[in-house]
Amino acid sequence: MDVSHLTLRDFRNYQRLELGLTPAITLLYGPNAAGKTSILEALFFLATTRSTRVSADRDLVRWDALGEAGVPPFARMLAEVQRKSGPLRLEVLVQRRTDEDGQLTAASSKLVRIDRRPARAIDLVGQLRVVLFTPADLVLVDGPPNERRRYLDITLSQLDPHYVRTLAHYQKIAQQRNSLLRAWRERRRPLRAVDDELAYWDQELTAAGGYLLAERLRAVHELNALVGPLYQQISGGSAPLLVAYQPSLELETNQNAGGLANQLAAGLRAARRDEVARGQTLLGPHRDDLVFRVDGVNLGRYGSRGQQRSVALALKLGEAELMRQRAGDAPVLLLDDMLSELDAQRRAHLLETIRRPNQQTLLTATDLGIFGAEFLANITRLRVEEGRVYPS
Ligand SMILES: Nc1ncnc2c1ncn2[C@@H]1O[C@H](COP(=O)(O)OP(=O)(O)OP(=O)(O)O)[C@@H](O)[C@H]1O
Asked: What residue ranges are annotated as transmembrane (predicted)?
């Protein structure tokens, strides 16, 4: 799939942008803080309804945006997407909220339209599929477990509408269950009826959790077939990379969603006392992790910087390939300042991937010097400066 046109209005440092895109490689280059990353961010947001940066949605709205008479400022993102099944028009408005006195608050709201019809944010996810590569991907390997869960969740959410909905439901239930557990821990609620009161929440949590587990295990199984050999090629080593799903409880993993849900339910019953004592849900997909091993060595803990970088790149390339295999068309690749970070071998791998036919890629760089003349001759180059994009 590819994005043929992107419109931005009052998004980050763009007042207005109308950008036609080719289905192949586009290089956005220009000085720091010009607005290159913001273009990738807008596409990522349209695909996932999440920002690439750790910031509130309201920060997407251009600081100097005025809004219109009586309407608070808003950022608008609109993409025309070309898919095998036909064209699609995706639009998101992020609007700042005001209080009774008309003063801007920290809150914002999201309005989504798919083919001009109002839709829920959750329905937008996966209409456009993207994979973002950034130098910060290293946290997938050496960072906290939530980064690795996020990696699986973003990949699966873009592939499976049921996964997004189940994940949202699971998170809501876990939150409500946690507030009950906290109330018992703090003796704000009588302890006699713990089992009865948890019965409904456990049923909902484990049904959703079983599905999330089943889908994550299936994805990890498929990823292994892709990422293992990719890592070998990228690192030039002989041993493949093994990705293991590490659940928060002992699991017979060769079971379907129902079987996994039953195991989770049994685990929760056994953990009841601990959960009440700690005031939180201790088991389930929200506590799981991924482990990366080569020759039996845990690379998250003991890998060299170079090995960890190779794992991160293999994971991202594997994600893109998984999406291509499952969905039947390639996701749009977004490479944010990526190539300058890579050594020659890793760079060559990435370039090989983005040069495939039917692969749309947008990449950013500050310095053209890192690209060969032949590469530059065969791509579209756009110069970005102070929130404007110029052909070059
Ligand atoms: N809501 C906003 N309104 C206006 N400007 C913003 C907003 N949010 C971020 N900016 C600014 O937009 C500019 C563009 O940032 P962006 O990250 O897109 O630049 P970049 O070209 O990718 O830079 P680099 O090469 O340094 O990564 C930055 O100066 C940033 O401070």
From this structure: none
